[in-house]
Amino acid sequence: MSALTDHHDNAHDEHDHHEHAPAGWRRWVYATNHKDIGTLYLLFSFTMLMFGGVLALLLRLELFQPGLQFVNPELFNQLTTMHGLIMVFGAIMPAFVGFANWMIPLQIGAPDMAFARMNNFSFWLMIPASIMLASTFFLPGGAPSGGWTIYAPLSLQMGPGMDVGIFALHILGASSIMGSINIIVTILNMRAPGMTLMKMPMFCWTWLITAYLLIAVMPVLAGAITMTLTDRHFGTSFFNPAGGGDPVMFQHIFWFFGHPEVYIMILPAFGIISQIIPAFSRKRLFGYASMVYATGSIAILSFVVWAHHMFTTGMPVTGQLFFMYSTMLIAVPTGVKVFNWIATMWRGSMSFETPMLFAVGFIFVFTIGGLSGVILSVAPIDIQLQDTYYVVAHFHYVLVAGSLYAMFAGFYYWSPKWTGVMYNETRGKIHFWWSLIAFNVTFFPMHFLGLAGMPRRYADYPMQFADFNAIASVGAFFFGFAQVYFFVFIVIPTMRGKGVPAKQNPWVDEGGVGAVGLEWEVASPAPFHTFATPPKLDASATRVIG
């Protein structure tokens, strides 16, 4: 910690701290500064997003028309499985940890994360894990091919790719747990004096709750895949029916992890949106306390809804009713959030820069995904729609239009603070409209395919599904190219410092109304060391005084 405290006592001499940044490759390999580690996480997750996206485009290429064109069914299932695993564990989760690393210390007035070296370790663990995951394609028998849920008994019958995949998931899980411990300790112990928990930015609240969720459920996944491993190699029969095991038990254990995991991937997104909507509505967030309680309610309820993924496994009617009603109940705190965002915008002095466009787009498209989720919570309907493209449409509306749109919104909102230059507004708006239209062209037809009975994870399909599949495939390629455009024409220029220099707070109007928070109290770009001494806060805990 001495590195954090042996600099200038005055927090406002931060411009002088640039010379303390190490140079060259050592700065990144041995990084202990939360900003550098945040940048590493974000670049890593975008790389994995592109890799997972290429796998998705191979799937859509195969599904462009009926019949087998490019890949055989076995490879198709491997692509499906690896697309899911890479997007969840390699793209979405690390990206939100990147945002947490960058923004939480800035938002709470802390000099850095609590455990700087553990922070470095938790990032670098992800590199060998992701290489292991990607390498499974080249092993005998290929990559895991039982779906991203790695259900038994399929997972008990695969080649060594499954074992390597299990090992990679263990390492990724360890990285997540370390990152979560770091976030919890930082938020609880390192807030600036005067910043009580109920004055924290919503992004910090959502991440605090997410970190507790991660610590609770990652060991559950570790248990499930360890039992799979011992079934495969050590003669146990947890999930092997031939030895008295129960494959459905794997589903129960997996989804006890898997459903809170869904909220792990969306709660930080809620936090980002809760920062952006007030800034561009030029109002305070409506119902701050109710937003905090709603986030906590979602986290608690997420532990009692897992078996809504399992309505077709033959559970008793009582169980179906319990999971049906608890799933419907979780829509209430989620609805509270949506209504609070709308109430924040109501009669606000709104402007629609790119972060606000993505935030409003998020609310629109995430709500569609939420409503299809309520439909799927009804057991008799779900039994018809189970494992069809309706489910694929639902969770992509929640995860792509939810998690990914919030990340884009967060990038456009905070990148001036990260890079010191403004992104190109016209290009940002092109990226938004291109992504929004292409996304809906890709995934909205899947609702109709699912309602018509097209099962997911199949490489071929009957002729009657051809038109909607062709539309979805074309949309998918347009969506993929939109993200290449984003990286080449928006991310790279801002990282190189090409653009109009950003003001300390670029999101305030002439009257000084707009974005508030401690992150806007430091220079742009944020100095290498910030808040070397705890800042003195005003009564709202959003501004530095003195």
- CATH architecture term of the largest domain: Up-down Bundle
CATH superfamily of the largest domain: Cytochrome c oxidase-like, subunit I domain
Number of domains: 2
Q: What's the number of extended β-strand segments? A: 0
In round numbers, the mean pLDDT is 94
By secondary-structure content and strand pairing, the structural class works out as mainly alpha
Compressed to H and E, one letter per element, the order equals HHHHHHHHHHHHHHHHH
Note the gap between the termini: 25 Å
Shape: globular
List keywords for this structure.
2 domains, 546 residues, Cytochrome C Oxidase, Chain A, 17 helices, 0% strand, mainly alpha, disordered N terminus
